[in-house]
Amino acid sequence: MLHRGENPPAIDPIWDETLEWTYEENELVFLRMLIKSDDAWAKNPMFAAAAVRLVYAVPGWTMINMMDMKGGETGCTVLVKFTIEDA
């Protein structure tokens, strides 16, 4: 069941967003994802990050492991769906 309202509970976030953009065909194109806090008082608002090289992205659903800001394991994964269309 999806959460109702604009702000899902912090312990069980669900985003239903479609992100689209155009980019140059290049082996070095990356998608970088950050999980951040929007608290103004947070010392370090970034919690986790991942970078996916799009040349290796397989269309469909995949789990992406998020790393802490020093490259260590976080135990956090994000389920994403890649759809890549030729322009």
TrEMBL record:
InterPro entries: C2_domain_sf (IPR035892). It comes from the Eukaryota. SUPFAM superfamilies: C2 domain (Calcium/lipid-binding domain, CaLB). This is C2 domain-containing protein.
